[in-house]
Amino acid sequence: MPEFGGAPSAHIDHFARAHLPPQELWPVFDYDSLPELRAYPDRMNSATILLDDMVASGHKERPVLHFEDTSWTYGHLLDISNRIANVLVDDLGLVPGNRVLLRSANTPMLVACWFAVLKAGGVCVTTMQLLRARELTYIIEKANISHALCDVSLAEAMEEAIDRTAGICKHIAYFTPLGVGANATLNLAANAKSASFKNCKTAAVDVALIAFTSGTTGNPKATMHFHRDVIAITDCFPRYCRMANPADVFVGTPPLAFTFGLGGQTCFPMRFGASTRFYNGPLDPAEMLALIQRYRVTGLYTAPTAYRAMAAIAEDYDLTSLEKCVSAGETLPKATWEAFHEVTGIRIVDGLGSTEMLHMFVASPRDEMRAGFTGKALAGYQARVVNEAGNEVAPGNEGLLATRGPTGCRYLDDIELQQAYVKNGWNYPGDVYEMTEDGYFRYVARADDMIISAGYNISGPEVEAALSDHASVSECAVVAAPDPDRTNIVKAFVVLHDGETTNEATVSMLQNFVKTEIAPYKYPRAIEFVSELPKTETGKLQRYRLRQKERGKAKGT
To answer: What integer pLDDT is reported at residue 222 of this predicted model?
Structure first.
């Protein structure tokens, strides 16, 4: 088992550490730039720091999670997390290092399960509630999942995925959003357990999370993050951009399966004694504004699409409590920033992050934000714009963004991807930027085939794979098509088998099929039937020609 210095691993199951990329392929990690980072001990459990220590420091009776008409305190969350940790160890046989899949909407019990896994020394693999059995199967196989904790309402796809994976995941338990109700096995088991638990003394460099993100190859990429990484993101963005204090109440749209959502709605608030309000189901802009008004929400994490829609109706609501707005998931258009600022007076923080980096690495405090710019390199991070050779370009010139700091990319068992993302100690997120003389970064474009639509990252090849499974489809290509409301939409160019009908009924049939195969938000909102796809002489699909075609349409050329 490889060692990385510091304290020996507390993991008994060494799968995660054994499947990290070779250390020589890691980026440079910088823990010297900030006093908080320099102070980290060799042993740290992120659950202890974010939950147990917060209770011990006087936050026991303070609210931490709100859901419908129920509020949990830090003390109650600790009790429930400890009970679940006891279930994991005593009843389900979890040993430190086991990977645990978590499947739920954003609820208090999902947070309790997340902490319970970390407390027991397990590795959290949080997944979106929208994923289907096909997608869950890949995750179970890739991360060698041994345990699963799942909301009881999502049991069907979970059970199907477990059946497909031939006994890899041997233990599963079900819960409800608030941990009440006799129809869920984890609820019953946890209620019978002690509210005390001795947290595993994990090494700072033990893997805490495996986060999956859609990539350009068709299959999600698995990124690995240590316990110290989880704490590092809380000591950079929210601390140095002054984005959280105990009086804050946050709300957001990203699932906790997205590291943007995990940070903004769990780790960041809890590091500073604040609270988060979850809600049941998707919210439209009017409902979001009404929620902010009703509960006096002070902080919001969502995508540019939502800010654009809210700006149009914000004057109809009392938003005087709202102070801290963060946008991520896709670039924030200047017009959207200005429209929201005009009607609310709030300067949106446009943060740039990636699952590979765990969270943000470019952003600025609210009072330093500029319309049309993402911000500066965060405290603790370095960022620069480079050419294809990796040499820094002069301010005002476009190039690839490169970054490094206390977090960085470590792909699970994929050296090829690792070498593509990390070069000469720098992380390359795949974005084209330019930098001003005073260090502000302006977004230009994505450098790969990722489709960013309404804050969701969608792999075009993954949608292609799902479409290709339909009996009527001969071949297809999926690209981003510019859209005024969603920034981009997923568009599919489809070649049907001879004899198939190219009409709206066929479009609907294919769209509905994709929704049953992969998460519904990934479906192609536009389908164009073609007789052939553009290819090289060797038969390689030329997606860039299709992207150019769609951009030309958007410009009217």
So the answer is: 96
Phi-psi region of 299 (alpha: psi -120 to 50; beta: other; left: phi over 0): beta
Nearest to 491 by CA among 544, 430, 547, 438: 547
* DSSP-derived pairing of the beta strands 382-386 and 398-404: antiparallel
DSSP readout, 437-462?
A: TTS-EEEEEESSSEEEETTEEEEHHH
Q: Strand, coil or helix: what is 18? A: helix
Parallel, antiparallel, or unpaired: how do β-strands 70-73 and 99-103 relate?
Answer: unpaired
DSSP assignment of 505-549: HHHHHHHHHHHHHS-GGGS-SEEEE-S---B-TT--B-HHHHHHH
Tens of pLDDT along 232-278? 999 999 999 999 999 999 999 999 999 999 999 999 999 999 999 99
CA 268 from centre of chain: 14
* Ranges assigned E (strand) in 84-169: 99-103, 123-127, 147-151
Among residues 423, 448, 473, which one ends one of the domains?
448
Per the structure block, which two tokens stand in for 402?
């490169």
Q: Are residues 271 and 284 in the same domain?
A: yes
**Are 262 and 352 found together in one domain?**
yes
Number of domains in the chain: 2
